[in-house]
Amino acid sequence: MKIAFLTLGCKLNYAETSTYERGFSSNGLEIVPWEDKADVYLINTCSVTERAEKKCRNVIRKMHRTAPEAKIVVTGCYAELRREDLSRIEGVSLVFGAKEKSQVVGRTMAMLRGEEMGSEGSFKQLSMAAEYKEISKETLSAFSTEGRTRSFLKVQDGCNNFCAYCTVPYARGDSRNIPIAEVVSQAEQIAAGGVREIVLTGVNTGDFGRTTGEKFLDLLKRLNDVEGIERYRISSIEPNLITSEIIDWIASGTKFQPHFHIPLQTGSDTLLRRVGRKYSTDFFAERIEYIRSAMGPGRSGGCSAMDPFVFFGIDVIVGLPGETQELFEETYSFLKDRIRPSYIHVFPYSKRPGTVAAQWKDQVRDSIKTERVAILENLCSELHSEFIAKNRGRRSTVLWESDEKNGMMGGYTGNYIRMEKPYDESSVNRIEEIII
């Protein structure tokens, strides 16, 4: 039998999908591309915005029209939050919420053997509070590979922050983590497969250690010793969790790259307080400046002035309830005049049922959100071009990838600048010193 996979949403979903793929492969199913004809289609869903949920529904309906005899299995955040809605869509055979991730392979195989059919009545729908407790009991170990060069390794799941706009705690449960020894073992498996770079992923990655009593920095140090892995990145980390101790250790000469993805969400202190973020703009700016001074060109400790600048990718939500023009301009000014990140990931606020912010009366019109997204995307283009320009002529390294397009191959520098050169098969999965 053949099975195909489609993953929507974050890198954590990709890591979990890859784990399902290995599980189904070990049970004798053939993994085929999503576009091919398959007997089973597994969709790993996202629920971070209304648009993401709509895309999930459309994909399911389209797949059923295209392959009406195939079994459709749905998992992921949307499956957790809207299980009953998904179960009613024609063609859906099984729905797995967050607390059933370890059952995806086993129950699907049972269904294919004729031992279990349909999802109605399979699980009792619990209250939101009870569901949250059930989700928090499970932590699925997972890692994915992106071609032959890079792997996304899940080290943590869930979140305790309950920001006013966010459904993630309800979809993924309490903050919890995999023990350091298990993470290191998985990193060794990844290295044995020839992968050279690992990206650490989690819902709230820097909160690692909450359930095992271990420290995030201790995890980083153990991973740094894994032979065969030459580069690490941290996919996303909250500003209040990236401590000076962590920064100083990374800057001391480790495998961790000068590339940070840090969520800001808004550059207005008024809105940061209102939605429940755990830092101020002053604190955020101080973290950025500390990292730049510790890891940037010309730092103390023998760093060459020819070394590259640190890459900062910053998440920003526009149109949060209560975001007046004045408060939006505070965000714009904070980004442009104070921190000048390398890239801005801009998202329009999406009202999510069940969250505190969805009940607020001062919602921002969609047309205004669209205008503000465009303004920040233009700023992003300006800042990203500036970042690339100031890195030109500096020394770095590139991990070359296997994809070929128009006779060229690509790869990323340590500080996440995309580079290209004529395709050379001998360069695939090799790290090469270059001048940007």
What this model shows, in words?
- With 436 residues, the chain is of the alpha/beta class.
- It is built from 14 helices and 18 strands.
- The protein has helices at residues 11-26, 50-66, 77-81, 83-87, 104-112, 128-135, 168-172, 180-192, 216-224, 244-251, 269-275, 281-295, 325-339, 366-391; strands spanning 2-7, 30-31, 40-45, 71-76, 92-95, 143-146, 150-154, 156-157, 176-177, 197-201, 231-234, 256-265, 311-318, 343-348, 395-405, 408-413, 418-422, 431-435.
- It is globular.
- The N and C termini lie far apart (47 Å).
- The model is unreliable at 117-128 (pLDDT under 50).
Spatial gap, N to C terminus: 47 Å
Given as residue ranges, the uncertain stretches (5+ residues, pLDDT < 50) are: 117-128
What spatial form do the alpha-carbon principal axes imply? globular
Number of strand segments: 18
Question: What is the radius of gyration?
Answer: 22 Å
Average pLDDT works out at: 91
Q: CATH first level of the domain at 2-125: which class?
A: Alpha Beta
Helices and strands: which structural class?
alpha/beta
Which second-level CATH architecture of the domain at 2-125 applies? 3-Layer(aba) Sandwich
Strand content: 15-25%
The residue fraction in helices comes out at 25-40%
Please, what is the CATH homologous superfamily of the domain at 2-125? Methylthiotransferase, N-terminal domain
Biggest sheet architecture: 7 strands, mixed
Spatially, the strands of the biggest sheet line up as 6-7-10-11-12-13-14
SS summary, helix count: 14
What fold name stands as the CATH topology of the domain at 2-125? Rossmann fold
